[in-house]
Amino acid sequence: MKHLILSVLKEMTGAPTEFQILPWGKIDISGDEPAYLYDQEAAALIEEFKERGNDMVVDYEHQTMQDVQAPAAGWIKRLVWKGTEGLWAVVEWTGKAAEYLSSREYRYFSPVIWITAKDRRVILLENVALTNQPKINNLKPLMAKMRHEDNQNQEREEIMIAKLKKLLGLANEAGEDKIEEAVTQLVAKNTKLEADATKVVACKEVMVALGAKEDAGKDEVVQIVASLKAPADVAKTLSLEVTALKQKIAAMEQEDLISLALKEGKTSPEELDKWGRDLAGKAPEQFRQIVLSRPAGSVIPVDGIKIAAKDTQGAVDAAQRSINEMMGIDEETFKKYNK
Question: What is the DSSP letter of 304?
Answer without folding.
Answer: G
